[in-house]
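Because showing beats explaining, we think one record worth quoting, sequence and backbone structure tokens together, and here it is:
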Amino acid sequence: MTTASTNGVPPELLTLLMLAERYKAQGLSPEEMIAKLVTEARCERSEAEAAIAASVAASANYGRWWGASDEAGAGERAHKASEGGSKLLAEEVPIAGLMREGVPEPAFLPSPTLGERLFYEGSLFLFAGHKKAGKSWAMTLEARDCMAAERPVVYVDNENGRELFAERLLLSGATPETVEAHFHYVPFPRGLAKPAELRPEIEAIARKFPGAFIVFDSMRSFMGRFGLDPNKDVDVDQLLGPMMGAVKNAPADGRPTVAVIDHSNRTTRSTDEYAAAGSFAKAAAVDAVYFFEKVEPFSRDVRGLVRIAVKDDRRGLLDFGRHYRVGGQGQGEPLFFEGVDASEVGTTGRIREDVREFLAERDGESFALSALRLAITGPNGDIDAAAKRFAENPRVPVFALYERGPNRAPKYGHDRERFEADGDPGLPI
């Protein structure tokens, strides 16, 4: 079979493409389709592959073409568009078939630590927050959850460095074996010269690791590298536009999810309309924007409180705010990070933490409610409720200990040893 060319498009393209559409309707894979083209069109395999490559040039995206619905004449329209000289029409993608079949419900990344249904799968999102608020920690925990689900993770790091990030992975609870199998760390890359290269780069990652979770840390550092101004809409679009194109045009069953960590202005609060610093175009260029806020300071030895607020959501399906207790795990222990109900934050939440810390610091002792009220600042009702709530929670080593006597008035104590032995939250004495 010869392959003469007309305007750069092989004349046999239409015949081969229509055959391929028939095979696709039969549910054949691309490899099976190539094999049948070789058999039925009596062409060499290399010629069949060349014809398919030509169809890629006509429809602009191989993954979208294979994933498109079976609309009559799709290949012919793409072929005619390429002959007519319209670059835009050459990239036409069938959409009516998807409407007939029904648009699938959005999927979400696995995120048991931060809470499920938080990050859209196959999306581009900004994760903004103040300096040193814990943004990278949150994305490290999300990376760990993705690895636990055997999803590949690519972390492009312009902020931390190999040693610090390895330490964070260990503190997140990730194991060297899991990291070796699913994690790809790229510190301070030098290979990208301009933002337009981000699209083919993300597309290449998606081909190699379908469904990958890709993190860029941070937006400010990449804009500086490319000489872009975060306050200019056009410059923001130059960076985020190629990323969005790569994500949305990838095959649906292997579409990557891209997170871009960004910095907020010093005065930004979760109640503000815009969370990301600089141009308002940031929110318009992505699927969702999250604001990560440090509500109470935290460290290795001090437990604090952080909050994730959803500021922009293209689909409108996300929660507007989630709270987490973080830190205070002690030397050599994995980072403590646990979601809490909104009712446990504010004054009531602070009192609960004060009660827990007071009892934990006096492990093995027990105290009547009157003693707790004297030691802790706050309404007596909140202090009493906190002690009782902990005693009823089998995950917390606080016990209600009852004195012998007519009223069996409870005392509350912290007993780590007994908790670890049997976890019984309330044995009377």
Summary: The domain at 346-422 is CATH 1.10.10.10 (Arc Repressor Mutant, subunit A). The longest strand covers residues 303-313. The chain has three domains: 13-101, 124-340, 346-422. The two ends are 92 Å apart (CA to CA).
